[in-house]
Fold these 2 entries.
Entry 1:
Amino acid sequence: MPVWRAGRCQRERAGVKGFEPRAGFVVQAYRFALDPNVGQEQGLRSHCGAARAAYNWAVSWVTAVWWQRRAEQSYGIADEKLTPWRPTSLPALRKAFNEVKHTDARFAAWWADNSKEAYSTGLANAAAAFDNYTKSKQGVRAGRPMGRPRRKSKRRARLSCRFTTGTIRVETDRRHVTLPRLGTIRTHENTRKLQRRIATGTARILSATVTHQRGRWLVSFQVEIIRDAPRPARQPDTVVGVDLGVKHLAVLADTTGKITYVPNPAHYDAALGRLRRLSRRVSRRRGPDRRTGRTPSRRWLKADAERNRVHHRVTNLRTDALHKLTTQIRAEYATVVVEDLNVAGMLSNRRLARKVADAGFGTIRRQIEYKGQWVGGVTVKADRWYPSSKTCSECGAVRDKLPLHVRVFACEQCPMVMDRDANAARNLAALAAAVKAGTGVAGDQDAKASKPRRADRQTRTTTRPRKRPGGRAGGATPRQRTETGDPRLTEAATPR
Ligand SMILES: [Zn+2]
C-alpha cells in the first residue's frame, strides 16, 4: 500500500480530474452536522436515493452486455460479431444516462426533482467501481481483489450525495449552509472555523458531500486551504516513535529520552455492560423478519434506537480522542515513526479483534500521516516485520521470542530492563535516524526477527473448525458440511 495515498484520494473526491491544489494550499475537509427541517430531510433522502438509482442503472446498463455476450457466445457467434462492450468511463455513462432519463420509465417521472449532481454522484461511483474492478483484475491495483460492481440495496446503501457545482455556500451567519436544489439548511454546530477562512480568502470550497451517519445528516466540505500551522513545538531533529497497543493506546518515546504513556480509553469496553443490557431488551421484543415479512413493533424500534445511540456515542468519543491524540503528536514533533501494523490480520483474531477495533490503530496511523502532510512533517513507516518489541533499545540485541503477556523487556545481552512498549517505541524512534529521506518503508535494511516464518499469521485465525455445541446432528462431518455449503464452515475449514 503506497504511503502517500491521501493526496490522490482527496483530488478524486474533489471531483476535479487531475486537480492539484495551488502552491501553499492543501486540501482538507470540514464536516458539520446538519439540522434539516422535514422538507429538507425529504430532499436529502431524495438526492441520496437518486444517486443510488443512477449507480444501479449504470451497473445494470454495463453488465447487461456481459450477459448478452455470454449468451451470444453460447450460440457460437464469432468474437468480433458479439455485441460490443459498453463504455464505463464517467463521461460515457453520463451521456448514456442523459439520453435515457427522459424516456426510461424508471426515471422519466421524477429525475427532474433532484439536482443533476445526484445522478453524477451515482455515475461517478459506478465508473470508479468498474475502474477498480478492471485494475484489480489486471493486477495493477493494491489491496484485496475487487468483485464485479453490484447493485446497491435500498435497505443497506449508505445515504450519500456529492455536489461539485452549483450554489455551495457557507452562510455568513455561521449557522446555515446552502446547497444546490436543497436550499439553505441550518447547521447543528457553528461553522465559524470554515466561514472565517472563506471570508479572509484563505479557503475555497471544492465540493460538498452530504451523508447520513449515526442518525445524523452531515455535510462535508472539501476545501482548498492555506494552513498557517505553527511549527512543531520541538526541535526538528527530535524524532518520536509511536508504539500502538491495547494496554496503552500509544507509547511515545522521543530521541530526547522522554517517554509518554497514552492510556487506552477503551470506549467500547466501557459501554459493553450497557450494550449487553440494551441488546437483551431488543432481543426480547418483536423485531423485523424479512423472511416472513414481519414488521418490528414500536417497542422494538424504541429499544433498537436506544441501543444504537450508545453505539453512536462510543464512535463519537473514539473519533474525538483519536483526533486529539494525533493532532497533539503532530503539533509537538516534525518526524514521527509509526509501525505498519497488519490491522486487518489482527481483526481476524477473535481474541484480539474487539480491542483492536476499539483502539483504532489504522486510523491513528492514517491521521498521523495526513496531518503530517499539512504541516510539512515527515512520517516514517516501520516495516511490518521490523522486530521493534524484540530488539533491545540499548544494545540492539534481538530476542527470539517475547510473548504478549510478558510486559517487561529484559535484555539477554546487557542489563537493560524496561517496559515492553517503551522499549518498542524507543526502537522506532531510533529507526528514523537510519532512514535518510523518510518517505519509504524503514526497518527492512536492519536485523529481521529471527523467525519470520508464519509471522504474517502471528495473529492467526482458527484453522480447525470450532467444536459446535450439541454435537453434529445428522452425523455430518465438517468436511461434508463444507461441501453442502454451510458458509460458516467453509470459512473456517478453508486452509489459508
Ligand atoms: Zn541489550
Entry 2:
Amino acid sequence: MLYTYFSSRLRELGYISLHIGRETPDLQKLAVKMLVKGYGIVEERREGIVVKESDGIKLLKSKGSEKSDCIYRKGGKNIIPDPPQYPKVVVDLGLFNALDEEEKKKTITQLFMTLNVVRKFWWDGNMVVVGDMKVGKAVTTSSFKSDAPTIVLDPYGDVEADEKIIRGADVFILGGIVDKGRRLKFATSELARKRGYDYPRVKIKLRGSTVGVPDEFNKIAEVVLRVKEGEGLEDAVISVMSKADKVARILHDVNLRGVEVLPEEFKWLKADDKVVNMVKSKLNKL
Ligand SMILES: C[S@@+](CC[C@H](N)C(=O)[O-])C[C@H]1O[C@@H](n2cnc3c(N)ncnc32)[C@H](O)[C@@H]1O
C-alpha cells in the first residue's frame, strides 16, 4: 500500500511525528492527498496531541504538550516523488457506446468508485482509463499496451483465478461495462478481442461458481487489490459481496444441494441476520 512508502520516507528523513492540522489521521489518505492535491511535508515543529500512531509515525492534531518533527500542509514537499507504478488497474471503456443511457450513467459511477478503491490502496497513478473520460489524476488514453505481467478480468475467461495468478500479475484490465441483467454475454471477451489484448483472460469464481461473485468492475478491482495485499481470494470476494449477492448464492446452493446446507452456507458466506432473514423469507415463499 502507498502509505508504507510514505511512512518509510518519513522515517528515512528522521521524522517520527507529524502534525496534521485538520486532516484525517490516516497515513494512506494523507499520502494520496500529497500526490493528488499538492499537500506535503514542511520541516517545522508544532505542538499538539497524539491522535494516532501508525507504522511508527505519531500523528498529532490540535494544541498540546507533544512537539512534532514536521507538519503536513498544502504546498508542503512531496516526499514520494516516484511512487510505484504497479499494481495498475486499467478500466477499458471500449464498449461504452453499446450501453443504454442508464448503463452509461452507472458505468461512470463505477468508474469513480474504482478510483476510490484504487485510492484505498494506492493512488490515481495506479489507474488507467482507456477511453474518453477523465477520472481524478488517473491516466486517460485511447489505447493500452503493457510489457508487465498482465491479465484481463473476464467472467467468461478460460483461466480460473487463484491467489498465485493474481499476485503474479502487475496489470489488471477490467471492462468498463455495466449491463443490466447481464444482457451482453461475453462482452469482456469481445472487448479483449477488439482491443487485441493478448493476455490471459481470468475469471473469478467462488467455490467453483460465479454465482454471487459481484460483477461490478469496481468490486472486482477491490478483490484483486486485496489479494495483492495478501488477503485470500475467497475472503476478498466475500468482503465485497452485497447482501443480495450472498442471498443469490445461498439460494443457488440450496437449490443444488438441499436445505440441509443452510447452516454451513450461512457460516462460510459470513451471512448477517439480515441475509439469514432474507434467505428464510424467500425459501418460505417457495
Ligand atoms: C458487468 S461485468 C461485464 C459483464 C459482461 N456481461 C461480460 O460478459 O463480460 C464488468 C467487468 O467486471 C469484471 N468482472 C465481473 N465479474 C467478473 C468475474 N467473475 N471474473 C472476472 N472479472 C469479472 C470484468 O472485467 C468485466 O468486464
